[in-house]
Amino acid sequence: MEAELPEVVAVLARTPSVLRALLQEMPEPWLGKHEGPDAFSAREVVGHLIHGEKTDWVPRLRVVLEHGASRPFEPFDRQGYRDADRVPVAVLLDEFETLRRASLDALATSALSTGDLARQGRHPDFGVVTLGQLLATWAVHDLNHIGQIVRVMSAGYVTAVGPWKQYLGILNR
């Protein structure tokens, strides 16, 4: 299945409200849980998404539209929002929502056609990629991190659920 712009936009537009529903006013211990030493907490995921809105998705879209594959994308720093753990989650959610709205506006004003999705860019690690792949990755990146948040939050109750753990696939991965 190829990326369809309306479907990508549908996912991207919903992510801020999904994150707000999951995290707004959540007790603090739920926001700081990690799966491991190099994994993000729920709060850090929001910081990571904020960093992506600022430095990754729309800037790369513009590179594809302006330069094609002749100019590689800037490498993305996956740890770019390092102080998210010191920022109230409500502030992070507000910032992400504002940035995502601006990203969606930029996407809309780009007036992309179906043919534009085949336009090429150059990733610093993967080489030639298409705009359709970039947009599909943006949507799946959101879904991946929503899944990560839910998984990390669920893991906090791995022993609390007792014998029901066997029926809870999210705890048995």
Account of the protein in words:
The chain has 6 helices and 2 strands. By secondary structure, the chain is mostly helical. It has one domain: Four Helix Bundle (Hemerythrin (Met), subunit A), CATH 1.20.120.450. Helix 1 runs antiparallel to helix 5 and helix 1 runs parallel beside helix 6.
Descriptive labels:
173 residues, mainly alpha, Four Helix Bundle (Hemerythrin (Met), subunit A), two-stranded antiparallel sheet, 6 helices, 2 strands, 54% helix, 5% strand
Write the layout of secondary structure elements.
Blueprint: H1 5-23, H2 28-31, H3 42-55, H4 57-67, H5 89-109, E1 120-123, E2 127-130, H6 131-155
Antiparallel strand pairs: 1-2
Helix pairs in contact: 1-5, 1-6, 3-4, 3-5, 4-6
Low-confidence stretches are: none
Text of the CATH class: Mainly Alpha
Strand order of the main beta sheet, please?
1-2
Number of helices: 6
Give the radius of gyration.
18 Å
Residue share in helices? Answer: 40-55%
Please tell me the overall pLDDT: 94
Number of strands: 2
Compute the separation of the termini in Å: 27 Å
Q: Would you give the CATH topology? A: Four Helix Bundle (Hemerythrin (Met), subunit A)
The CATH homology group name: dinb family like domain
Largest sheet: 2 strands, antiparallel
Pattern of helices and strands: HHHHHEEH
